[in-house]
Design goal:
The protein has about 220 residues and is of the alpha/beta class. Helices cover about 40% and strands about 15% of the residues. Strands 3-7-5-8 form a 4-stranded mixed β-sheet. Strands 4-9-6 form a 3-stranded mixed β-sheet.
Amino acid sequence: MKLLIESDDADTLAAALHAVHASNIDVLIIPASAPRTKPKALNAGLALARGEYVAIYDAEDRPHPQQLRAALAAFEDGDEKLACVQAPLVIDNAGAAWIARQFAAEYAIQFNEILPLLAMLKLPLPLGGSSNHFRTDILRLSGGWDPNNVREKCIAFAAQNQRFARAALFESRSALISVSNCKKCAIGLHREAVRVTSARRACGLRPNFGPCARA
């Protein structure tokens, strides 16, 4: 397991170093340099990954306890072109505030309606930014993540080159806690929507896009 932490995030880094004692957990310090994007950090982790599969989780993710087993079963049931499986993301505190309800509605539409439809039609899937699982060799072959993209949520704009690789959903949910109801959160929600929309437009407009994990 690799914990990716920016070098200038002193509090998180200190907490991680204090908490981690297991030999199979590494704390990777990501140098603070522009562009400061999650895809850039993910590439640093990918370079040191040793397993056959790579799973991406955010700190706030609460995946189902059997999710890794379910992801492995999905890969074993699929063919050699199955490069990525995405776990549905759900907001766990939808009743807490108006902002939380907006996030919950967005995630429900995305993971319960849009992505299943695209998967059924065998079209590219705009993946979530976490709780996704990749075949390491195909992820590396595709070049990893685009370090300059501000939104990793478009990782593997689901294998646009369908002849090379494809992505799919599987039934093992990850719960997230949404933000609280405040003016700053509302502004952040708007900026988040702008970033995601811009990133997906960039992905859709780029011709001959790389097959698996380019953002």
